[in-house]
Design a protein that fits this description.
It is built from four helices and three strands. It has about 120 residues and is of the alpha+beta class. It folds into two domains: about 80 residues, no CATH class; about 45 residues. The protein has a three-stranded antiparallel β-sheet with strand order 1-2-3, with no helix packed on it.
């Protein structure tokens, strides 16, 4: 039995990790406190004082050598390929223009379910 060699590809994976940065703010309510903390905090410098929150929300995967980024993909934290929710909206818009008499609705439903699952997989839990 001959075993075929596995082709390896070089990737650059950009991990989007959550960093907790404590900020002391005086405000009228919690909403204002968040808004002011975002506006008044220089995260570029303060991130050094932050703490890794032990969470990776998503990743961007680039294929090394693909200078045009045509093969770059976004992935959820669980590794599933991210599909933009706009893809689901585009399918809904396309469905709205279909003639039910000539459309295979089972196929359309299957596409919608697959896109919906892919979009949901991208949402951090």
């Amino acid at each position: 039995m001959t075993v075929s060699p596995v082709t390896q590809t070089d990737f650059t994976v950009h991990l989007f990790a959550v960093v907790r940065v404590p900020v002391s703010i005086t405000a009228g309510d919690k909403k204002e406190a968040v808004e002011r903390a975002i506006e008044e905090t220089d995260l570029v410098s303060e991130i050094r004082h932050g703490e890794y929150a032990e969470e990776v929300t998503h990743a961007l995967v680039d294929v090394q050598g693909d200078t045009g980024y045509a093969h770059s993909t976004w992935h959820s934290a669980n590794g599933g390929e991210y599909r933009d929710p706009a893809d689901l909206q585009a399918l809904v818009d396309r469905i709205a223009t279909m003639d039910p008499a000539t459309t295979d609705l089972g196929s359309v439903i299957q596409q919608a379910r697959a896109l919906s699952s892919a979009c949901a997989a991208a949402v951090p839990t």
